[in-house]
Amino acid sequence: MRLDGKVAIVTGSSRGIGKGIAERFAREGARVAITARGADALEAAAREIAAAGGTVLAVPGDAGLKADVEALFDQVLDAWGTVDVLVNNAAWGSPRAHILEMDEEHWDTVIRSNLKSVYLHCHRAANIMVDQGVRGAIVNISSFAAARSHRNMAAYDATKGGMEAMTRTMAIDLAPFGIRVNVVQPGAIHTEEFEAQGSEAAARRGQTVPLGRVGYPEDVAAAVLFLASDDASYITGQAIAVDGGVLAQLRSPQVDSPLPESVKARLTAPNANLPT
Length: 276
Hints:
Strand content: 5-15%
Largest sheet: 7 strands, parallel
Order of helices and strands: EHEHEHEHEHEHHHEH
Radius of gyration: 20 Å
Structural class: alpha/beta
Oligomer: single chain
């Protein structure tokens, strides 16, 4: 129960990584406020968390709209009186547009959804924590896009790079108040949107990953829990990649030289200790 008695807000938490984080927080004893634009999916997620014994508050809203963000924090304060942990997970996940064809509306929408949303939530949460003397934790969910590039996703990648620069600055600004701000960078994470593609597609995605598999929301949630807990009390302004080693490699296995036959033999040996 590493978050016993804590109040946490997780944005973009009706499904995928955000839902996985909220579920883990609830199992660790936190009272969790979940929020997303889709009210039906959000209520379904809340029912699942409650059925598992968690304490949850579902507040529909758009993470990039100030009025919705203010309403979220007001409801959390009315219900539980404080905020100890904020996780900024809400984002437009795959906004594709080549830079030659990207229009201003696309750029503005991605910036509002992925970066302005982080400012709005961090600004309100940090002020609550400072005013109440809470030594809180903020964890921003970035991507390996902050360090490496996606084709046709200049706006998205810019928001993730901006988020990480913003995180470092906030960590310094808030350190005198005992508030820690960190980043988790998910890699190839298998969420609901990939389920329809089947296990073979998941295996293909995993071929690019040094650990040999895709990740799951539970993998990301474990890292976020660590940074939100007192176990990370001396960590701030840092980024932890949960990517199976993707950022560590220069090139994907598919374009590198074939494995030596002696190594292939060890991979297929009956007692081979392989990742599952």
